[in-house]
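Title: [Solved] Gluconokinase 3D structure

Original question kept below for reference.
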Amino acid sequence: MTAPTQQPVIVMMGVSGSGKSTVARLLAERLGWDFAEGDAMHPAANVEKMAAGVPLDDADRWPWLRVVADWISSHTSSGQPGVITCSALKRSYRDLLRGPDVVFVHLVGAADVLGHRMESRPGHFMPASLLESQLATLEPLGDDERHLLVDSGHTPDQEVDEIVDALGLVPSVV
Ligand SMILES: Nc1ncnc2c1ncn2[C@@H]1O[C@H](COP(=O)(O)OP(=O)(O)O)[C@@H](O)[C@H]1O
Ligand SMILES: O=C(O)[C@H](O)[C@@H](O)[C@H](O)[C@H](O)COP(=O)(O)O
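Solution (posted by the thread starter after getting help):
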């Protein structure tokens, strides 16, 4: 009998407003997998900076990315699948996060749609004015990066269906 393939940790990535939190939470619920909100791992200084309309730089992001990477590796090293949100905008950031059991799912959307979503999202620290710098910083996934691109213009349920089907994800047995 062949051993079952280890189910991955999914990094739900993309710029602000692309639907990472919404789709990742739904995906984790659907699968009964662990979920983590990468935004909640930012130090307070990063949140204050973004709330003031100033984009983060590499020095701001590296300590945060290390916390995200620790969550990922604590799961992959024990064979536990999970879903975590992280903008993961640059390839160098993804290099820190990646591993054999890590898949990046990039929610891709049109700037006007994302901007509208950010403006209509209640009670979030991230101003829509930062979308431009997010898009400018984003480095597309390379063919050699294990990933799936998802059109973020569909409904969250449709996007979850697509991710589960395309990656062959299997719910945890409870
Ligand atoms: N597929 C979708 N279609 C329509 N609205 C969405 C979709 N995904 C997310 N939203 C809405 O857009 C806003 C931004 O979504 P969110 O999940 O917070 O994105 P992110 O975590 O990438 O910043 C929220 O108000 C959310 O309810
Ligand atoms: O690296 C960054 O610049 C931030 O992580 C950023 O990409 C993220 O978008 C914000 O934390 C807002 O959070 P939302 O993505 O949930 O809007």
